[in-house]
Sequence to fold (553 residues):
Amino acid sequence: MNEIRINVAIIGGGPAGLAAAAKLKKLGIDKILIIDREEKLGGILKQCIHNGFGLQYFKEDLTGPEYAYKFINKIEELGVEYIINTSVIDIKKGHGYEIYSINETHGLIKYRARTVILAMGCRERSRGAILIPGARCGGIMSAGSAQRLVNIMGYLPGKKIVILGSGDIGMIMARRFTLEGAEVIAVLEILDYLSGSKRNYVQCIEDFKIPIYFNQTIYQIYGHNRVKSIDIAQVDKNQNPIKVLERKLNCDTIIFSVGLIPENELSRSIGLQIDPVTQGPIVDEYLETSIPGIFSCGNVLQVSDLVDYVSKEGEKAAEGVMLFLNGNMPEKHWGKKVLAEGNIKYVLPQRISFWPNKDKFVEFSFRSKHPAKNITIRVYDKSKIIYENNMTKIVPGEMEKLKVKKELLLKSQGDINFSIYEKE
Amino acid sequence: MKKNKIFKKELICIVCPLGCLLKVEYQRQPNKIIKISGNKCKRGIKYAEKEIFSPSRVLTTTVRTLSNRVLPVRSVNEIPKHKIKYIIEELSRIIIKRDIKFGDIISVNRKGLKIEFMATDNIKLEKNV
Fold:
């Protein structure tokens, strides 16, 4: 089998991979290849036809396809190579990295890359993952599948629809279904607060007067060939259904919008260390994983709320790749641990290697476990507080960013901790 | 007396992902914002004024084509909220019978109402379709 030698292999041609490719080319790196398994570049943006993308990155209000189009144009202009309809099936460590991929025309293709950027995105959490009992009939699908059916293929999955989960895709699909002539009879959220953004609540739920119920979940699904009805129930504090407070709803379709999970099958097969909370690889400030030369960015690393963050992450990984290829990797790879404490669900990067460069700050992203008001984010080591920042509120549905001076982190002793303090 | 009545309303600003909670006091006839608080930027004021007196939205949807894919489109301008239902029904009657390039305009013309939509993807019709 012939092998094709390249400098950087980018796995995935969605927003993260595209941004990384464009940045790499601008930094003067050549022999970059984007490998994507679909028939068009752009990843999930292709089916997100609603607007609201790019407000931060481009300072414009764009739809998903428009946002992707801008990046695709950019990489075409820069002459970045890409291959579509091609799946990467394995990555092996050898002299550099061996990337095995397959497509219909060439069969098995082997690339030998000096560095790899993992940008495979995420998948949707399924019905099985949240243990919803009942019939396994037609008419049950995830919000993303429904979005593809409606926005690309042009099919409406049903007429009377119930959506479980108040995530952003769920709310956006509630609006899409309504516009396309279906009736959304309920959006159910097991928590007592919205898991998506307030903005989507206003323009998707409120605008179209869609009923939304909190602290409620699906208790049972009935139907033979097709969903006929469901039992929904109020839940207690531990999210267990209270049987007395159960009621029946007639519907023909159930849509699950219950969260996203980074898709890390490839990462696991290479043997990358995975963070059990983010379910993405553990990385340092340049998004380098536990194996030197393999970087990760976008939703495969951590599920972001905004595509703008994903593009920025892609560019960060590209900078890391450039430093790596120029031989500027830190001697002490993976110096310090960054730990999440208390109400902080996770912090990213989980390690700091102190790459030799001009950056004065390290940017952290984090989420809280539950909502809190009037809080202080505290960054500290075993002896002292390194940095503090006051915030009026924090909610799990919105990722927060924090910049901390690199010299302060350099001076710290031992691990670095992140915590939330609530003021009375 | 009725004329000078001051109305109070709380709105969530949807201009950017911050989602500021705006507290607005306003008057009708003439329509005027008297007081606004909670906005972190100027765009919030503009949004509140628009949202209270003439709410409108960018409409994104799909249009049928002769290929096996639908064409994603967005309205070039914001559409008054109360007209969205009517416009979406008009749009559902359109079938695209030619190749479309990103940025092409598709318009809905009916009863003196002209709404322009922009294609946000390329569509190539297969031969013999």
Q: What stands out?
A: DSSP finds two helices and ten strands in chain B. The CA atoms of residues 42 and 99 of chain B lie 42 Å apart. Residues 43-53 of chain B form the longest helix (11 residues).
